[in-house]
Each structure stands twice: as structure tokens, then as C-alpha cells.
């Protein structure tokens, strides 16, 4: 089968790989019909996630058709069209039982932090991902969900990660009616967080980025204010002035840490992404939230990105909440929001690319070329 194949930082290509096999009675094999490239894949692509092995197939956002099921799978049948949450979750460990599917123990028992994730290095369990024609889906009775007939496939694939992550960012912010919410990052995750902030009753939503095309997009898509941090001398002062020097009620970090990625991109001669990253957005969030406010972090950080201004956190009495999204927990209510037209996930898709062109697709999304927001990869049919 054809599959994306990681060759080292900034080098991915499509190759022939063996078909995945059922390895456990609870496995299923899914024929992928669509997958996405995520900002999280960029951390892998930039070589920033430990133990990302050459030969691995990325892709934790995918939908497809059940091709084969293991002997004990009960909730799926061959031919079902399913969306598959990015978290690999057993459904029975103490974390899964609390709805913390992103922190499942059984899917990645050797890790101390994250649960299993498709195509996300051996630190997330070493599972191959869905940027391929076929993928092995463990714990197949737990994660996959049959796609309701009235959900468009492009909406379905965005429900595997980006929509739940944006929604959980807003939820962790504990937004109360009338709150001022600042979202750092106008990528797919930040755009969804801004959109979802209104669903929690926000009174004002402000998005900060430096890519004008994304700021333009989010202004229309999420009907919010959006500002370019490169046009400000001091983003924290700007946000304080914008909030009568009180600070925002809630700040959301939808950026994560990736400065090394952009540095490396310069070294390798790729067009520079200009991603500020490396905890910059998190610092701005902590410093521009009000006293007693909440900072919600869904941006992904590497093991070295731990320099947070703890003094300000203590002195301002800030609450920081952070996690990988627990997709399965959120899906029922998000499907309702999509069906009711309150969220239009497919509206953020800018690129549809054959899987065979995966190398160009990564470069375009990483370097933020061609007004790229979200890319869908289509395997050969
Ligand atoms: P993306 O790369 O498309 O978007 C990131 C955006 O942040 C870009 O538009 C960039 O210009 C902007 N940015 C860079 N530095 C900034 C700064 N200092 N202030 C404000 N904006 C800044 O990525 P994405 O797909 O939107 O993902 C965003 C983050 O969310 C990534 O770190 C990704 O790994 C993470 N993520 C987390 C989860 C989760 O479950 N927690 C799920 C998906 C993605
Ligand atoms: Zn993702
Ligand atoms: Zn579990």
C-alpha cells in the first residue's frame, strides 16, 4: 500500500509499505478515505518530538471504511464508514473511565504522560498513522464511531481532532457569559477555539497571530477581532490596553512550542515559517490574563519547553489547564453542533492533495505558503 514515510527532519515522502495486519482480537483495519495534516505533525516533521523513527507513517486525523475486524470486535462491521479519534484509548483503564481518553494508560503503558496517538512517534506508543491507504486501529470497539449519514466526510475528518481540540480549549478556559477570551494562534486549532468560545457565552473574542491571511480568515469565520503581533511593540501591553488594564478573563494557547522548527527550517534553506513559538505565546497568555484568570493550553510543547513565568502565575493567582483533547468524550455534543450548523468544520479546508504529493503538502503547510490553513490528503481510490 502507499503510505507517508518519515525520512528525517523536513523529509517525508510516499512509499510502498506492507498492509497492516490484525495483531490483536480487538483490532480493526481501516481503508483510509481522507486524512489531514495537523500542526502537531509539524512538530514531528521538524524533528522536535523524541523517538520519531525513520520509516514511521504519520497521521492521527483520518476517516475510512472498516476493511477487516478482529475476532472480538463487536461494535463495528466490515463496510462501516468510521471516524477515528486521534487518541488510542482502551476504554477501561482508570483514565479512560474518567473520560480522559487522551491519557489512556493501556494504549501507551510505558509513557508517563501521553496515551497512544496514531502516527505520533514512539513516545506516543509507536503506532503507525493514517496518512496511508490502510491503518491498523487498536481497541476498535472504543474509539471509532460510525459517521452519521448527515455528516459530510470533510466535517467527519475534522471531528477526529481539530474541532474537539478547539472546543476543549474553550471548555478548559471555563468561559463564563460575557467573558473576554484571547486566543493565541490562528491555525486550525485557534480558529476552532475562537469559534467555540462563543458557544460558551464569551462576550468578546480576540485572536492573535502574525499571518495576515489567517487573521483575515478568522475575522470572518469566527466573527472575532484579530490582530497581528508583529504590528505591536508589546502584545501584552496591547492586550492590557484592550481590556481596561484588567487583562483577559481567559487566554488560550493554540500555538505550542516550535521555535527550533523554524530555526531548522532556515538552516535547511526552506522558506522560513517565522513561527515565534518556544513558549512565547504561553508567556503572553500568562502575562495578559487577568488576576485569578484561566490560561488554557492545547498547544503542544516538547520536553524542553518548560520555562514558564511561574512567579507571575503565583502572584496573579492564575489557573493553568492543559491537556490533549479527549475526542471521544466530546464527539456526541460536537456532532450536534455540526448538525445544527453552529460549527462548520469543512469551512477551514484550503487544500485537497493526493496522498502521493505528501512531501509538497507538508512543505506548504509548514511554511504557511499558498494561504494554507488545513490540508486534506486523499489516498488513491
Ligand atoms: P498551525 O501551525 O497551523 O498554527 C499555529 C499558528 O500559531 C500559526 O498560524 C502561527 O503563525 C501562530 N503563531 C506562532 N507563534 C505565535 C505567537 N507567539 N502568538 C500567536 N500566534 C503564533 O497549527 P494548528 O494545527 O493550529 O495547531 C496548533 C497547536 O495545537 C500545535 O502546537 C499543535 O501541536 C497543537 N494541537 C494540540 C492538540 C491537543 O489535543 N492538545 C490537538 C491538535 C493540535
Ligand atoms: Zn491533529
Ligand atoms: Zn485507557
TrEMBL record:
<dbReference type="InterPro" id="IPR011032">
    <property type="entry name" value="GroES-like_sf"/>
</dbReference>
<dbReference type="Pfam" id="PF00107">
    <property type="entry name" value="ADH_zinc_N"/>
</dbReference>
<dbReference type="GO" id="GO:0016491">
    <property type="term" value="F:oxidoreductase activity"/>
</dbReference>
<keyword id="KW-0560">Oxidoreductase</keyword>
<dbReference type="InterPro" id="IPR036291">
    <property type="entry name" value="NAD(P)-bd_dom_sf"/>
</dbReference>
<keyword id="KW-0862">Zinc</keyword>
<protein>
    <submittedName>
        <fullName>Glutathione-dependent formaldehyde dehydrogenase</fullName>
    </submittedName>
</protein>
<dbReference type="GO" id="GO:0008270">
    <property type="term" value="F:zinc ion binding"/>
</dbReference>
<dbReference type="InterPro" id="IPR013149">
    <property type="entry name" value="ADH-like_C"/>
</dbReference>
<keyword id="KW-0479">Metal-binding</keyword>
<dbReference type="Pfam" id="PF08240">
    <property type="entry name" value="ADH_N"/>
</dbReference>
<comment type="similarity">
    <text>Belongs to the zinc-containing alcohol dehydrogenase family.</text>
</comment>
<feature type="domain" description="Alcohol dehydrogenase-like N-terminal">
    <location>
        <begin position="25"/>
        <end position="144"/>
    </location>
</feature>
<feature type="domain" description="Alcohol dehydrogenase-like C-terminal">
    <location>
        <begin position="188"/>
        <end position="267"/>
    </location>
</feature>
<dbReference type="InterPro" id="IPR013154">
    <property type="entry name" value="ADH-like_N"/>
</dbReference>
<dbReference type="InterPro" id="IPR002328">
    <property type="entry name" value="ADH_Zn_CS"/>
</dbReference>
Amino acid at each position: 500500500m502507499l503510505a507517508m514515510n518519515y525520512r528525517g527532519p523536513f523529509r517525508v515522502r510516499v512509499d510502498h509499505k506492507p498492509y497492516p495486519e490484525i495483531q490483536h482480537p480487538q483490532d480493526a483495519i481501516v481503508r483510509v478515505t481522507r486524512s489531514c495534516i495537523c500542526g502537531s505533525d509539524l512538530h514531528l516533521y521538524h524533528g522536535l518530538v523524541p523517538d520519531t523513527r525513520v520509516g514511521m507513517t504519520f497521521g492521527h486525523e483520518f476517516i475510512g471504511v472498516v476493511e477487516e475486524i478482529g475476532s472480538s470486535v463487536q461494535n463495528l462491521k466490515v463496510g462501516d464508514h468510521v471516524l477515528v479519534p486521534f487518541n488510542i484509548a482502551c476504554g477501561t483503564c482508570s483514565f479512560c473511565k474518567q473520560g480522559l481518553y487522551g491519557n489512556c494508560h493501556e494504549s501507551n503503558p510505558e509513557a508517563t504522560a501521553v496515551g497512544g496517538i496514531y502516527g505520533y512517534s514512539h513516545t506516543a506508543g509507536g503506532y503507525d498513522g493514517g496518512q496511508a491507504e490502510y491503518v491498523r486501529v487498536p481497541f476498535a470497539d472504543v474509539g471509532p464511531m460510525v459517521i452519521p449519514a448527515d455528516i459530510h466526510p470533510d466535517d467527519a475528518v475534522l471531528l477526529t481532532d481539530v474541532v474537539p481540540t478547539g472546543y476543549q480549549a474553550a471548555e478548559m478556559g471555563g468561559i463564563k457569559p460575557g467573558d473576554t477570551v484571547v486566543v493565541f494562534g490562528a491555525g486550525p486549532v485557534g480558529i476552532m477555539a475562537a469559534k467555540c468560545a462563543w458557544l460558551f457565552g464569551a462576550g468578546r473574542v480576540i485572536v492573535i497571530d502574525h499571518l495576515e491571511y489567517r487573521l483575515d480568515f478568522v475575522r470572518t469565520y469566527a466573527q472575532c477581532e484579530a490582530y497581528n503581533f508583529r504590528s505591536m511593540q508589546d502584545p501584552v501591553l496591547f492586550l492590557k490596553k484592550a481590556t481596561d488594564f484588567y487583562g483577559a478573563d481567559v487566554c488560550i494557547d493554540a500555538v505550542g512550542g516550535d521555535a527550533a522548527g523554524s530555526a531548522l527550517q532556515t538552516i535547511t534553506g526552506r522558506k522560513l515559517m517565522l513561527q515565534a513559538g518556544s513558549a512565547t505565546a504561553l508567556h503572553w497568555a500568562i502575562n495578559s490574563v487577568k488576576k485569578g484568570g484561566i490560561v488554557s493550553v492545547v498547544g503542544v510543547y516538547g520536553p524542553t519547553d518548560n520555562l514558564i513565568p511561574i512567579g507571575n502565575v503565583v502572584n496573579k493567582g492564575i489557573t493553568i489547564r492543559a491537556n490533549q483533547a479527549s475526542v471521544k468524550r466530546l464527539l456526541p455534543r460536537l456532532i450536534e453542533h455540526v448538525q445544527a450548523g453552529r460549527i462548520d468544520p469543512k469551512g477551514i479546508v484550503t487544500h485537497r492533495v493526493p496522498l502521493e504529493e505528501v512531501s509538497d503538502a507538508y512543505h506548504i503547510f509548514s511554511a504557511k505558503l499558498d494561504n494554507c490553513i488545513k490540508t486534506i490528503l486523499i489516498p488513491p481510490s
